[in-house]
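Example 3.2
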Amino acid sequence: MATWDLSKTIHHVLICNGSSCNRVGAEKLTQAIRMEITKRNLDDTIHTTRTRCNGRCEDKCVVINYPKGTWYKDLKPEDAPLFVEALMANNDYREKVSHSFNGDGFKRLPGVSTGIFKD
């Protein structure tokens, strides 16, 4: 298993690969984001992690940017260039944001489902 030097990392991108996201192309999205990062020589700056379910299945495919705490919804492989560009400009890829961290918690943007409770 490899160990990465994260000393230059600015963004940690968590890409959901849970079953709902996988059914709509999460693996292709993961590869597209990683390829875009490599193409721009940003492997030291942006670290990606493939996760399991992040609990926002209605928003599939879900991607989370930390430490900023921005959650993205409905990302597709073709969104990878604009997503990575927005990260490097320290902006949000606005049309795909579902939740933003405001210091006191997460703010849900208008029109985004509140979620469902699990038993």
